[in-house]
């Protein structure tokens, strides 16, 4: 159980660091537009949650051989890239997505939810592909 908790932290921290690096560097250069409440949290949380659920169910990186038993630490790089991708998608949607005014209509909200939902599915697919197909470390003694 301790290995799973450690691996969960190894997946959470790089994802957050990747997200923060893109969000807090390029985010200051992007125009600020209002976004629908809660949709950015879904965009950021769903890919991470899916990767964690698949890891806990399958244990792909938990059983990855590596140097001195630390092969599962290699999952940090794909999760860092997944977090950076989620932040880039968030910034692009915030800059170029549909703008919602204070008195938004149902059509505006429907278009925004659809666009954010499709983007969330795309980011989740890329994150799962990075998690699953990233080259595993080769087993070695030293």
Commentary on this structure:
By secondary structure, the protein is mainly alpha-helical. The chain has one domain (2-133). It contains four helices and no strands. It has helices at 2-25, 39-58, 76-96, 106-133.
Characteristics of this structure?
single chain, about 140 residues, 4 helices
Summarize the structure.
With 142 residues, the protein is mostly helical.
Present the secondary structure layout.
Layout: H1 2-25, H2 39-58, H3 76-96, H4 106-133
Helix pairs in contact: 1-2, 1-3, 2-3, 2-4, 3-4
Bulk shape: elongated
Residue fraction in strands: under 5%
Amount of helix: 55-70%
N to C succession of SSEs: HHHH
Structural class: mainly alpha
Which residues form runs of ≥5 with pLDDT under 50? none
């Amino acid at each position: 159980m301790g290995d799973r908790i450690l691996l969960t932290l190894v997946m959470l921290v790089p994802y957050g660091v990747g997200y923060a690096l893109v969000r807090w560097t390029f985010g200051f250069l992007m125009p600020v537009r209002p976004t629908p409440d809660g949709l950015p949290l879904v965009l950021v949380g769903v890919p991470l949650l899916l990767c964690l659920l698949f890891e806990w169910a399958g244990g792909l990186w938990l059983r990855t051989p590596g140097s001195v038993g630390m092969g599962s630490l290699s999952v940090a790089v794909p999760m860092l890239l997944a977090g950076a991708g989620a932040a880039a998608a968030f910034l692009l949607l915030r800059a170029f997505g549909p703008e919602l005014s204070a008195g938004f209509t149902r059509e505006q909200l429907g278009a925004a939810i659809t666009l954010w939902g499709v983007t969330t599915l795309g980011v989740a697919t890329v994150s799962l592909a990075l998690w699953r197909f990233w080259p595993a470390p080769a087993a070695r003694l030293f």
